[in-house]
Amino acid sequence: MNQKKKRASYVFNSLYDQIELLVSGEFGDANPEVRRPPKESGAQFAVPCFRYAKVKKETPVMLAEKIAERWNSGLKAGGLITRFEPAGGYINVFADQRMLLEEIFKDINALGEDYGTYRQKEETIVVDYCSPNIAKPLTVGHLRSTIIGQALINILKARGYEVVGINFLSDWGTQFGKLLYAFNQWGDENLFEKDPIGHLVDLYVRFHAELDVNPSLEDEARDCFKRLEQGGEEERALWLRFRKASLADFEETVARLGVCFDYNWYESDFEKKAHELIDRLLDEGIAERSQGAVIITTSDDDNPPLVAKKSDGTTLYASRDLASAIERIEKFKPVTKLLYVVATEQNLHFVNLAKALERLGFPGICQHIRFGMVSLPSGKISTREGRVVYLDDLLDEAERRAEEIVKEKNPDMPEDKRAQVARRVGIGAVIYADLSQDRIKDITFDWSKMLAFDGNSAPYLQYAAVRCAKILEKAEPEEQNPMKVLKEEDIPATVDKMTEPETIDLLLHLGRFPQAVSEAAQRYAPHVVAGYLYELATLLSRFYTQVPVLKASDENTRLARLALVHSTGLVLRKGLAILGIRVPVEM
To answer: Which of 443, 445, 463, 439 is nearest to 531 (CA)?
Structure first.
């Protein structure tokens, strides 16, 4: 077996699991609550006793004291847990610090770039994200779905899941009849070749302007879409051109965010499958006819049913989405979850979708990964039609502002290199500004905070990673990759050299990285990783401010500290990559 795959238990995960078992055994709680206590407590974890106290009809303080005493009496010498201490209504859990430090260092040394990842599971999670409309450019409204979706894919892969990312493109509906009519009437091949999506947007706007004057155009558009539905060759050829041009435009934009979809699926491909599914649901009694339409009753509450087919016989997005979900379950077996990264406003649709899937025999498989709204940045930024900010325009503005800052801080940097650094800093700032906050919350862009080189921002974390690399570059050639020099049997002596509080705090926090990945995967919460990285960068700053690395008192101490710097840089880069943020070579 490859050495890098031998160690994957991770000492903080092991400690957490031990505590969970204790709490489960004590209180019969299948979902025990274990928290991280305030740093000044010196404990590694804490167990809150408040909800258990209500059941036991005791005060939380008294219960914590009683349980801590009992757990202490059952401790065995030489174990990872050294003692339990009551603290108010909590039980603080203390571990053998020396054992923690050694195990952390051994894991990082053995796993290298794989540190923080887990063994492969035989489970598949399908993530639906981005999912724009054909013939329209990506806007700021697509930003959060795209960023959060890609981060979740990266996190879940690190946690060991097989993950499939799907971009489910809306390419069907009467709006395409309008676009087909508009192109046939006013389309310009030269303009389409030069800027296909821009030209299609202009045509769509013109159609609605003309419609105000001539309402009969609505009928013309319906006729165009009907011919498309019936397989008209001219309509289909033109529609496919629109789709191809749109996909190329989307992929160019999301590539700037480091996003690449595993699959592009099209809503139109599920029109026929939706009809077939509806017939099956009617036969099985899951769907029913109502006033000429077909509905699926998904609950007994006040929520409206899922309308699968309109009275005119056409399917809706809901039934096409349901057919798509069935296809995902069948194609990517064994599917554990279908995740849909979509704004909170669509919650009712996904409540109905989940309940419809439950009636089809797939309970709990559908999960709506909700997120809040994004407020546009203040200041000058390009808009179209006075209503919307295009995503490319936002990213251009981020890169422009980043380049101004980089030029100010490093005026001698060559222009081409400055542009590359600005690209990574600017795009990273946009991504981190989103992912550093709980996805449920609304977010507001603040350029000054996003691009700050101090505080909780991507540039601050990127600078920390660059700083690690620069320290190692200044070391002796044989010490520039200290983990190649250190063998596992050298680690106890190396840990002996790590005596300063700043050094110990930094190494202990490195040990929490796998747990941060695991928690982020469990909660579908990228901000957990972001928060971990910010704390890591802060501890690193305190470490290299207070503890000399290159000027350490002796060779062994210097090597130990260089190994810590190397490990910190590795985790910073790994964590930022999980969030979709690249680190520049210099800043």
So the answer is: 439
| Percent of the chain residues topping a pLDDT of 90 | 85
Tell whether the model's pLDDT for residue 318 goes beyond 70.
Answer: yes
If one counts the domains in the chain, the total is: 2
The first and second tokens of residue 389, run together, are 């900010």
Query: Per the structure block, which two tokens stand in for 92?
Result: 């603080």
What value does the CA radius of gyration of the chain take, rounded to a whole number of Å? 28
Which pTM does this prediction carry? 0.93
Helix axes 174-186, 233-255, angle to 10 degrees: 100
Residues 6+ apart with CB under 8 A from 205: 385
8 has a pLDDT exceeding 70? no
Distance in angstroms (rounded) separating the CA atoms of residues 410 and 418 = 9
- Give yes or no for a contact between 236 and 271, defined as CB atoms under 8 angstroms apart: no
118, 157 contact by CB (below 8 A) = no
Point out the domain boundary residue: 95, 112, 146: 95
Q: Which residue has the higher pLDDT, 164 or 377?
A: 164
Output the pLDDT for position 94.
98
Cα distance between residue 97 and residue 103, in whole Å: 10
Query: Which CATH number characterizes residue 469's domain?
Result: 1.10.730.10
pLDDT classification of 300: cutoffs 50, 70, 90: low
Residue 273 DSSP label: H
* C-alpha triplet 188, 193, 195: angle, nearest 5°: 90
Rounded Cα distance between 413 and 421, Å, is 10
Helix, strand, coil share (%) of the chain residues, nearest 5? 60, 10, 30
Residues 6+ apart with CB under 8 A from 274: 308, 315, 319, 320, 322, 323
Has residue 330 been placed in a domain? no
Q: Which helix (H) or strand (E) holds 121?
A: none
Range of the domain at 404: 391-579
In this structure, is residue 520 part of a structural domain? Answer: yes
pLDDT of residue 9 exceeding 70, the answer is: yes
Q: Which residues contact 522 (CB under 8 A, 6 or more apart)?
A: none
* 239: amino acid identity, one letter: W
The pLDDT of residue 7 is 52
Q: Find the CATH number of the domain harbouring 24.
A: 3.30.1360.70
Instruction: Pick the last residue of a domain from 36, 64, 95.
Output: 95
Helix residue spans in 480-554 (DSSP H): 482-485, 491-496, 501-511, 513-523, 526-546
Domain membership of residue 44 (yes or no) is yes
- The encoded tokens of residue 364 equal 């709990």
Residue 253 inside a domain? The answer is no
